[in-house]
Write a structure and sequence with these properties.
395 residues; mainly alpha; three-stranded antiparallel β-sheet; Lag1/Lac1-like
Length: 395
């Protein structure tokens, strides 16, 4: 059977016969020859969407009517860029989810993990063929995650979890390649939509937050949390990992069982368990945000991964809570409200005990000054200790 690249190039010809997506063949290294086309396709598509859709959509949703009359500022540009990043990821994850489900939903292994390893007919892992449409799903995902490494390095806003995201992308690429070549594509075809589903809600929530649509952000966040728990912390470890590490040994006969003892089997499962570790790590951050949301009565905070959070957003005060910030090696804060001072201390972001005691004493003393002019409190705080931690969605 010809490789995916040959099929793609052949389909571009008007005289070529229609492609049989149900045709089966063994996976080959030659199939990855289509990746360069996808590496050109994804950035080209993103540039077009940014130029003709995402930019206008971001300005309209974030700034409302009259957005075209607003002056360009660094703060507005950062918010627009973040919205466009989320919009792009939403488009990919939604398309990948629909593509994966359309291919795997009617397959026997979608609901019964036993068929990861047996069937149809007398096929037994690793002697199992792949349908052409399943190969296309794999190449689509592989192309996106290879592109995402370059995207993370040169395009996206740099965030605090840069190292974690890079490790995640590398592990995902290795998983895709190993599962494809070692004919573990059936469990892989279920793992892909399991992960993409929660990412869809994540990106919807982030776009809603950037657009100040709180109710949609809350709904998306709750769906994100529910899908994360159900798909990544329950289905993934107790169905998928159980099948790839235990069920395979119970099903594959003695003659073929030596195959699963090879380094490929251990590499595949090691990477899957590493993915589970990432899930747990991110769940801790999500849980903190969930607690924060409950404490704030449903208000969803900002992105915890943002590398340069806005101080005005972090220390948002009421009309009586005016803040003047100066950065000269350290932050000098002029606090005009005892309530704000107490909120900063209670948030746990001030680690210096002397500063904390002084701030508390100032805040408490002001409670007994009725209708007196508020005095300024100058406190020098190291830059890394001055920000309140505002928690938002974590990918």
């Amino acid at each position: 059977m010809p490789s995916l690249l040959e099929i793609f190039l052949g389909s571009c010809s008007s005289s070529a016969p229609p492609v049989d997506w149900e045709a089966e063949a063994y996976p080959e290294y030659a199939d990855y020859a289509v990746l360069p086309l996808l590496l050109a396709f994804f950035p080209a598509l993103r540039l077009l969407l940014n130029q003709f859709l995402f930019e206008v959509l971001a300005r309209r949703l974030i700034f409302g009517k009259g957005y075209d009359k607003l002056a360009e500022t660094d703060e507005r540009r950062k918010k627009i860029n973040k919205f466009k990043e989320s919009a792009w990821k939403f488009v990919y994850y939604l398309s990948a989810e629909l593509f994966s489900l359309s291919v795997t939903y009617n397959e026997s292994w979608f609901t019964n993990t036993r068929y990861f390893w047996v069937g149809p007919g007398e096929q037994l892992w690793p002697d199992q063929k792949m349908k052409l449409k399943l190969k296309a799903v794999y190449m689509y995902a592989a192309g996106f995650y290879v592109y995402s490494i370059f995207d993370l390095l040169f395009w996206e806003t740099r965030r605090k979890d840069f190292g974690v995201m890079m490790s995640h992308h590398v592990a995902t690429i290795v998983l895709i390649v190993v599962s494809y070549i070692c004919r573990l594509s059936r469990p892989g075809s279920v793992i892909l939509p399991l992960h993409d589903a929660s990412d869809i809600f994540l990106e919807i929530g982030k776009m809603a937050k950037y657009s100040s649509c709180e109710w949609l952000a809350v709904v998306a966040f709750l769906l994100f949390v529910a899908s994360w728990i159900l798909l990544r912390l329950i289905v993934f470890p107790f169905w998928i990992l159980r099948s790839t590490s235990y069920e395979i040994a119970m099903i594959v006969d003695n003659e073929n069982r030596k195959i699963y003892r090879t380094s490929y089997y251990y590499l595949f499962n090691t990477l899957l368990f590493s993915l589970l570790v990432f899930h747990i790590y991110w769940w801790v951050l999500i849980y903190r945000m969930l607690v924060k949301q409950i404490q704030s009565r449903g208000h969803v905070g900002e992105d915890v991964r943002s590398a340069t959070p806005s101080i005005k957003q972090i220390l948002k005060a009421k009309t009586t809570m005016k803040i003047k910030l100066k950065v000269v090696g350290c932050l000098t804060e002029e606090l005009y409200s005892s309530q704000l001072g107490m909120r900063i201390v209670q948030a746990g972001c001030i680690k210096n005990e002397n500063v904390k005691e002084e701030l508390v004493s100032i805040s408490i003393s002001r409670k007994f000054r009725h209708k007196t002019k508020t005095e300024k409190a100058r406190i020098s705080v190291p830059l890394e200790q001055a920000s309140l931690i505002c928690i938002f969605f974590v990918y």
